[in-house]
Amino acid sequence: MNFEKYVEKGNLFLKDLAQELGNPDDKEKAGRVLRTVLHVLRRRLTLEESFDLISQLPMCIKAVYIDGWKPSPMPDKTIKTVEDFIHEVLEEDRRAAGKDFGNEDHAKQVIKAVFRVIKRHVSDGEIQDVKGDLPKSLKALWED
After folding, report:
1. In this structure, which long-range contacts are made by residues 13-17, counting pairs with CB atoms below 8 Å and at least 24 apart in sequence?
2. Which of these, 72, 45, 84, lies nearest to 118 by C-alpha position?
């Protein structure tokens, strides 16, 4: 196993996100933001869809996705709207939310940036499947 290759791919993903967030040198913030958004997303997806998405992520990003995960057989249906998703992201990132996500408008832009980067690293078919697993109102977060 070439662990260096896994680390390299994970670093490229984080670098891509840091650049998308407008802070190309702040991979630490990009990592916190990515972790937070992925953890809320995984709560909203079915297990099957989570596993399908994970299969296409770089190894290190897979680890971020599953860190601390207690899979549930049913998705969290309380996350119905963009506002619900933003609220959950801010709750998930409690201590650093102001620094990482700012207000709700800025948080929405940060979440969309994470999804843009995921779209560049995951097949279009899988992105369509993820979007198909979400309520109509949440699909807007995946649009540019």
Report:
1. 13/57, 13/58, 13/60, 13/61, 13/117, 13/121, 16/117, 16/120, 16/121, 17/113, 17/114, 17/117
2. 45
Per-residue pLDDT tens digits for 12-38: 999 999 999 999 999 999 999 999 999
Cα separation of 131 and 125, whole Å? 10
| Spatial separation of the C-alpha atoms in residues 24 and 120, rounded to whole Å | 17
Q: How far apart are the first and last CA of the chain?
A: 37
- Inter-CA distances, 38 with 1, 3, 48, 68, Å: 26, 23, 15, 12
Residues in the chain: 144
**pLDDT tens digits, one per residue of 80-114:** 999 999 999 999 988 777 788 989 999 999 999 99
